[in-house]
Amino acid sequence: MITPFREGRVDEEAIRRIVEFQIRNGTDALLPCGTTGESATLSHDEHRRVVERTHEFARGRIPVIAGTGSNSTDEAVELTRHAADTGCAAALLICPYYNKPTQSGLIKHFTRVADEVDIPQVLYNIPGRTGVNMAPETIATLAEHPRIVGVKEASGNMAQIMQLMSLLRSRPALRKTNFSVVSGDDALTFSIMAAGGTGVISATANVVPKQIAAIVHHFAAGRFEQSRRTQLDLLELIDVMFIETNPIPAKTACALMGLCGPEFRLPLCEMSAPHLDKLKKVLKQYHVIR
């Protein structure tokens, strides 16, 4: 989910609208305070408030997975504990950014959070944002922890993701678990599910949740051709969602749809005029706006 702002503050009424829009359009879970939620610029109080309000507005209709990662292990523990205390179904924890920890450091970081906080936890591998890639062997090792239940894979490296799938299948300790690999790249959802993945945590779903959900739901029901066609049909829209740094296009689209205002936290800023024109053109083409 994007985090809507109004006059520099979190816009809680817009959060309510966004939650209702997502639930009405078939989203399976809500994820506040991730990358798309501009979490890096939220104060701790704002972060907690966004998680609390999202959980409150969802009213138990679908699960809430709170983004709680940090480049400080102590801070990640604190934010994850807050998510658990709030009643969230799970937490999403990004690889520590900027520090560039070793693979051993990653294992120690995620293991400590999982040891200290009793909530299901999803790893988040996005080396383009963090500067560190979580290796398949590292993910497979962490998957043995009973509280680490999945990974959002946004490396964009299908060979690496296939290697992870192979490792998960080959380890006796993991064969009977339900460890999930979900896509973190909207354009690769069908491909990752074909490799054994279970879904997507999507930025584009802020704009077209019903269509993104259809890719996953068709595949899960065995309607592989419908899933593939839906993925292919959405590629132009997905492409324009990343024409500038996420979440700039997604939030701008949500503002054009009337879900929130077009306000960002620096260093993110409004779209350039040529990119805005292209975004509007594609949104009209997909009947998202008139």
How are the SSEs ordered, and which strands pair?
Blueprint: E1 5-6, E2 9-10, H1 12-24, H2 44-58, E3 65-67, H3 73-86, E4 90-94, H4 103-116, E5 121-125, H5 127-130, H6 136-142, E6 148-153, H7 158-170, E7 180-183, H8 189-194, E8 199-200, H9 209-220, H10 224-233, H11 235-240, H12 248-256, H13 273-285
Parallel strand pairs: 3-4, 4-5, 5-6, 6-7, 7-8
Antiparallel strand pairs: 1-2
Helix pairs in contact: 1-2, 2-3, 3-4, 4-6, 6-7, 9-10, 12-13
pLDDT average, as an integer? Answer: 96
User: How many domains make up the coordinates?
Assistant: 1
Count of strand segments = 8
Shape label: globular
CATH class: Alpha Beta
What string, H for helix and E for strand, traces the elements in order? EEHHEHEHEHHEHEHEHHHHH
Helix-residue proportion: 40-55%
Number of helices: 13
Q: Could you describe the largest sheet, including whether it forms a barrel? A: 6 strands, parallel
Work out the radius of gyration: 18 Å
The span between the termini is 23 Å
In CATH terms, the superfamily is Aldolase class I
**In order across it, which strands form the biggest sheet?**
3-4-5-6-7-8
CATH architecture: Alpha-Beta Barrel
Structural class: alpha/beta
The share of residues in extended strands comes to 5-15%
Low-confidence stretches: none
* CATH fold assignment: TIM Barrel
What does this structure look like?
With 290 residues, the chain is of the alpha/beta class. It has one domain: TIM Barrel. The chain has 13 helices and eight strands. The protein has helices at 12-24, 44-58, 73-86, 103-116, 127-130, 136-142, 158-170, 189-194, 209-220, 224-233, 235-240, 248-256, 273-285; strands at 5-6, 9-10, 65-67, 90-94, 121-125, 148-153, 180-183, 199-200. A six-stranded parallel sheet has the order 3-4-5-6-7-8. Helix 3 links the parallel strand 3 (65-67) and strand 4. The model has no long low-confidence stretch (mean pLDDT 96).
